[in-house]
Amino acid sequence: MKSRRVLLTLHLLFVAILFGVHVVLITVSLTAAVTSDESVLKACYTVMHLLAATSIRASTIGTVVTGILLSVFTSWGLFRFYWIIAKEILTLLCMVIGLVGIYDWTLKGVRVTDSFGMLARSSPDFTANQAFLFTGVVLQLLSMVAMYAISVWKPWGKVSRFGGF
Where are the domains positioned within the chain? Predict the structure, then answer.
């Protein structure tokens, strides 16, 4: 029982870090979209890329590992309940967006703003990249909110025919 609580505490800490980082990413992304100062634009993309390369990766991995351990070492199991399967699907979405998408989009933003500064804004590629980044961050944040709600409400029942493990 004590180890389960420690594991749950770690899981919640990793999720809170991930959630907080995404709130920061939205704020910095919006700042990058409206600034007319080249140094602020470059700083925004540098900060977003730094978060993508460090905090997002570490907290995503920590969240996934502790989540799997919680499922395996409790009565919930990995595939026994529809609500857990829904969280697993949302987790996969978050992993792809966070570990690949946000990292790549911020890296591209850093490279373009370093090379072209404010002129980057006139490029359709930069504008599309900025839109992908913002959309990815918002999708990830919404997925996390959905996972929070699913964890609290546990809306769907047990998978009857599969049995789960």
Answer: 2-153
